[in-house]
Every structure is written in C-alpha cells, then in structure tokens.
Design a protein that fits this description.
The chain is α+β, with helices and mostly antiparallel strands. It has five helices and three strands. This is L-rhamnose mutarotase.
Length: 118
C-alpha cells in the first residue's frame, strides 16, 4: 500500500492540546478514514513540528472524499485551530518527496542481479 509522508506545524503553545485530542480520535472519523482507504496513519511530534506517515490506497481520492464528509468537517473544526496553518483540502499536494528507501534499493539490486546487502 502506498505511503504518504506529511509535515505540518502546530501553533505556538498548542502541543499539549494536539496530543490530548489525538489520544483517541472520534470513532466516526476513524471509520471515515478506513472507509476511504486509510490502513494506518501515524503521527510523530518534534516540538511544534508534526510528521505524518499515512498508509492509504489513494491519497488524492481519500482527501476528495473527506473534504465534505460530516465527520471530517467536525474533526477539522477541532484540530484546525491547533495548527499554524489550517488544511483547507484545496491542494493537490503529494506529501513530502521520498529521498531514499532501503527496501526499494534492495529490490532494485535484486532485480538487476546485484547481490544486495545481507
């Protein structure tokens, strides 16, 4: 399943609030994500910087479906004020570009007949 990495930034002083609302997200939001191809969504925080890794069948289709989904609209009303810049779901972003992958390198080496690292 494709993975998309994202980087977002919290507004000053909102770190604890963000972590609190993410202890358990609402069941209808989790269901909407799953119904739209999200297998997993992990978030790491470094200060105000958030790094998301999303396992999703089709990132753009998921965003299109969630843009006006009632559960997501309510969820965005909760989390948007915590961010330095709210996500309006208008862009065609593709996330953070991948620089390197060990698995992809090993696959290329195997396909080309090069002995991959043991």
């Amino acid at each position: 399943m494709p993975q998309i990495a994202l980087h977002t930034v919290l507004d000053h002083g909102r770190e604890a609030d963000y972590e609190a609302v993410h202890e358990t997200i609402p069941a209808d939001v989790a269901a909407a994500l799953a119904d739209n191809g999200v297998r997993d969504w992990r978030i790491w925080r470094d200060g105000r910087h958030l790094f998301h890794l999303i396992d999703v069948a089709d990132y753009h289709a998921m965003r299109d479906a969630l843009r006006d989904h009632p559960a997501n609209v309510r969820w965005q009303a909760t989390v948007a004020p915590l961010h330095a810049k709210a996500d309006d779901y208008s862009g065609e972003d593709d996330g953070i570009p991948l620089v390197w992958s060990l698995a992809e390198q090993r696959d290329r080496e195997t396909e080309s007949g090069v002995n991959p690292c043991p």
